[in-house]
Each structure stands twice: as structure tokens, then as C-alpha cells.
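Reply to dn_fold:

You asked what the input looked like. This is it:
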Amino acid sequence: MQTALLFAAVLIGALAVFAGAVAFRLWRRFQGRHLRRGAFEAHRALIEPHLKTRYPPGPGPFPAVLLFHGCGGVRRIMHAYADAAAKAGVAAIIVDSHTPRGIDYEAALAQVCTGRRLWARERAADLHAALAVARDDPRIDETRLALAGWSHGGWTILDAFALQASGEAPDGLDEPPPDGFRGLKAVFLVYPYVSGPALARRRDFTPPAPIEAVLVEEDAMASDADAAEVFARLKKQGAAVSWSTLGGVTHGFDEPDHHPESKLLYDAEATARTRADFVDMLQRRLHPAPV
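and this is what came back:
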């Protein structure tokens, strides 16, 4: 009897220690204290070699849109949207957040898509690094910039806005980026993740540019109800936010190369519609060039 009680006490103590350790790690992550912080220029040097830019024909300078992939990393979907932007006269910068960190596709699915690694408040540093690169590019008009994000990429954009509004640096940076969102004119989000640890659910902020979004009805991976709730709150506070919701499709409907074991389905019709909305947004928000 005493042995059983002792064993139970030891087991309970071990579970309490384990639970405490997990809670402490989560607290550090929620506070952005799980990473060593460093200089913005060092982070830019990490990200810059992994940016891919599509330019329209001609010398420029062109307006530009920065594309932020979902949790699986850069896939065919990003190149398709980049090509559509370039054909519309807008330079497109694909921001690869995984390769600089040594995350391949399988690791992304196992770690990033499950929330074990690379939360949006950390990836927000990539967003600012890419903006800085765009502003320094002589073929890009730094006064006409847009951001576009899919799923985890949408989470990244909204977290970056929330952090900037409160004067906080993205995780991994020792201070807020110097230029903020200067030159930003538009934001396009597709099935953005706005649940769980997303800062947009818990903080008030004013988006620095109009937001247009496409949600998926009853999205099993990125709650459309949570996103609509956040957008409605921002709109009530005076922000320029609009969104539509697609029925009969899944999360990632515009990605043609899902993992073979994925239950997500590609939908060509919904993809064409969303890509047309994306191009329309770019043409309305970034054209013509300012006088």
C-alpha cells in the first residue's frame, strides 16, 4: 500500500513538473522570449538571398506585392500568383521563410503547420526584411507596395500589424524595424489563420492599409468565423476591411500540389476567381502611378 502511494506521489510530481515545463515554454513563446534577439540588418541578410522577384517587362520602377506562403512553404501556388501580378504590371516578391531556417516540406508539415515552430510573430521579422529589400530595389516604386498572405502568411501579416501598433519588435529582433509599413497601400489575405495564438484576436490595432480577404466557409484549418469576427471588429473601429466567403471548397483550394495524404482539395474555378480578385485588387490599389 505504501509502495503504491509512493509511486502515485512520484508520478503526480513528475506530471506536475512536466506540465510546468510545458507551460513555461508556452509562456516564453507567447512573450516572444524563446529566441535570441538580434539586429534587423542581420535578419535582413538571412532572408534576402531567399527572395524571388518577378518583374514586369520594362525598366520600372514598378509597384510591388510581397507574397507570404502558407505553413507548407513556397509551392506552385506562389509562383502562379507571382506570374499573375507581373502580367498585371506589378512586381512580385516571393518571401521564403522556411529555406533560411533549414525547414523542408516534410518538416514544415510536421512542425510549422502543427504550431511547434515558427509562429507568425517570429516570421513578422521576415516581412519587414522583405519590405526593406523592396524599398532598396531601384526597379520597385517604394511608395506603391502591397502584401499578400495565405493561411500562415496571412497570420504573419496581421501579427506584424499588431506588433507594430504596440511598438513591439517581432520575435528575434532587438527593436522594431525602422521604416514600419511605409509605402504600404494594400493587403490581400486568403484563408488567413486568425485563431489560437494569433495576436489579431487579442489586440486592437489599426491596419496601415486596406485589407481585402477571401475566407473558406467552415474552414477546418483556419476558422472563417474567427477571421470574420476579427475583421468585423476592425471594420467597426473604422478600418477599411472587406471580405468574402467561398462555400464548397477546402482550405488551400488554390494550391494544386497538396501532399498525397492531404484531405485538402484543389478547385480550379475558385482558384481562377480568387486570382482574378487578387489582380483586381492590385490594379485598383497600386495603379496608376502617383503624379
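Strands lie at 51-54, 62-68, 91-95, 140-150, 184-190, 211-216, 241-246.
Hope that clears it up.
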